[in-house]
Structure formats: structure tokens, C-alpha cells
Amino acid sequence: MKKKIITILLTAVLTLTLSAAAMAAQAEETQEQTGELSFTTIAGTQWSISCPPEFSYDEKESYQGGMGQKNEKKHGVLSGDFKIGICDGELYTNVYEDVAALNAQFKKASIYEERTVGGVNAYISQNKDASMKVVLAYQEPYYICLNFFSETGDYQALYESEAFQKILDSITFGGAEEKAALTSDQGYLTVTPVGAWYQGESKYNQAITLYNDSIGPVTWAVFDDSQLSTVEKLKEYTLTGYSSYSFEEKTIGNNTFELLDAGSVSYLVAPTSSGKGLKIELRNCTLEQAEELLETVEIK
Asked: Between 240 and 27, whose confidence is greater?
């Protein structure tokens, strides 16, 4: 009987030990899965944020919130005792002079504070039953917006909580993401991805193709340097599909192009030193939205 009791006690101790080890491992795994999260903004700036280990992160979870500005992109949700929806965007500068002006409209909200977070100007605001926003002016006219959602609706308590303060204290900024210049196979064109532009699958002729999801899911720019035709022939081929349009001269950066702007699609052609021309096709973005990218183009 005594031996049986000892065996039962040993089994119980072993079970508790294994359970504790399993729980510790699970907690460690959760912390590793969340820990410090890193993001790259649409302007190419790298930043990070940390949350308590019990928080989880879902990159695909959607939410209602943000600042409703240009090219705003959502980056998922952090979930724990409260939720944080993460997004970043760019001001409509014809409406707001800077990020401070955007947030000035919230100065009479129930909660409003201006402080420094991660070395940049930050604006905290919350009113009525809306989410609490932390807007980071990391690089004018660009911003990051963290939307804090409280299940209880007690935003004053959330604002004053240690967890909220620690999350803000964890935010750090790095430099702009450095992207290498891309040169066409023929060697007469070089373009450097900037902001949210990135290289993806070539659309045709093995041409360099850059995409920008922050503008739209089907936005791209094709840089075709196949060296098959002169500028006049490229214009002629293009006009067969756009007979009601015409080309006009346009200087962007150090280059002068012939431009056909048809709204959702634009074509730019230019000569190279070989005597042949190159063609750039913009899809589902305006010339203004692609201007920063086009300014990086070098033609030989």
C-alpha cells in the first residue's frame, strides 16, 4: 500500500513538472512568435514595435480605422487584452500641410496628447466610442497610425495603463530600406525601386517590372529595354491601341520622354544611345504616383 502511494505521488509530481515545462515552452514559443515585430512603411522606412508575450499577431486580420489618407496600407492586427490595428499612409498635402495639421482636428477630443515616441512627433487622440489613435509623424508627409481598440470601452484606463506606455516605449525607427538599382538585360536602362515599389514577375519581354501594393493590388510599372524598335516605331505601335490619344514631351528627372497618358495606363518612350528606343508602361497609377520612381531612371 505504501509503495502504491509513493508511485501515485511520483506520477503526480512528474505530471505537474511536465505540464509546467510544456506551459513554459508554450509561453516561450508565443513570445518568439510575437516578440518584436518589424515593418517597412510605404516610404521605405523600417520600424518595430513590441507587445506583451500573450499578444498574438495576424497579418491578414482587417479592421475599421486609419486616417483615410492617400495610399494608406494596413499591416494586420495585434491582439491581447486590447487590439492594435497597424497602418501607414501619406497625407493629401492639398488638404493638410503636415501631420500636426491632420491631428489638430482632434484637440478637443476626450483624450488628446502630443508627445515624442521613438524619437518622432506623435499624436494621441480618442473621442466617444471611437478607437484610440497614435499617429507617428516619422517623415513628412508620411505617417504611421496605431488604432487601439478596447473591448470594455474604457479608453481612459487603457491610455493610463502600463501596457500602453510600454508598447509606445518599444517603438523604434531604422533608416530607409536600401534597394539596389536594377539594370535591364540590354544595359541601356537602370531603375531603382523607391518607397513601396518592389520587383516582381516580369510582364513581358523579360522587362523589369515593379509593383506597388500600397497604390493598388494591380499597380505596376514595366521598363522594356528590348532594343527592338526606334522611338517612332514604339509610338506607332502604341497608338494602334490608343488612336484617340497623342504623345507629348515630358521631362522627369534627368530624362525627356514622349508621354501618352490614357488615365489608368500611361506609356513613356525615350531614345537610347544605340539608336533604339525604350518604353515604360504604367498601369493603374497616375504619373504623379510614379514620379518618384521615374526620377530614378537612368538611360544610356
From this structure: 240
